[in-house]
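Why run this: before we spend reagent on co-expression, it is cheaper to look at a predicted model of the complex and decide which construct boundaries make sense. The entries below are exactly what would go into the expression plan.
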Amino acid sequence: MSGISGGVDALVVVTLVLVTAAATAAALTRDPVRQAAVLSGLGLCLALLFLAVQAPDVALSQLAVGTAFTPLLILLTVRKVRRSGRGEASGDGGARGKGDARGDRGAGTARRGGGR
Amino acid sequence: MNAWLISASVLLAAGMGPCLWRACRGDPAQRLLGITLGSAVAIAASLLIARGVERTSYVDVALVLAVLSPAGTLVFCRCLAGAGRPRAGNAPAGRGRTEGS
Amino acid sequence: MEARHAVVLALLFGGLAMLLLSAVALLVLPGPYQRLHALAPATSLGLPLLCLALAVDTGPGRSAVKFLVIAALAAASSPVVGIAIGRTIVESTLEEGASGAESEPPA
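The model came back. Tokens follow.
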């Protein structure tokens, strides 16, 4: 039993280091599309950490949320913002003020992501 | 400290690092490579952990991951192909415009 | 029993070596199309070998079938995901080339 506990301790240390590295990288990434990719990797490492501390149900829900739902929501939001910005630039969506501000910022992000 | 847990630790330490490094650098399309290989490494590691701690119910995590990770990657590809397009001449852009107006 | 243990260890180390080789290949290969090939050994050879080792270790039964199902899922979804990622890389490269920075031709 102590042998298994030693192996689990090594596993927890390794996954903690991975989670720390992935979370730092996710915090330092600026572009939302690239951040979605890093967040997917962070969700994977976090699910492995939950599995290593013997909580498989939390690992299951973290897999479903962190691998599939969060990047999908981020990508859909970025797509919607860029499209509303493009529609506002071509002249058929200029009736709402808040939408214009968001569209301008989204277009700026698109230009910065394309130029990098 | 049995062989399965040692294998899982070595696999995570040496195999997950390059995947995270690839997922953190470069073009958004190339980060998908790191995510895909990272999910394969995570499937292997969860199988090894399930065998190492003698709990067969942990295999379900690997099964869910094997089902969810290709679906997530395909959804990622689909959204990425539609999001980075500067010109509005293809079918998804037209559909989005009709539902926006 | 001893021969079975040796077979399990051989399959386990083979699968582990394939996964680590794939990770090293992802790290050192230059260019996106070369890195796309680094996914193949892990999902089509490494994971099935590992699942085969676990299935041989547990013996015949329902859990062995579950391991083999996981291996089949990973091996079947790998080409589909590879094709989708390759198409996304081609599209993004063409888009960059249209905006002025042509890096390398596809394939």
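Chain C has a mean pLDDT of 85. The helical segments of chain C are 2-28, 32-36, 39-58, 62-98. Bring this page to Monday's planning discussion.
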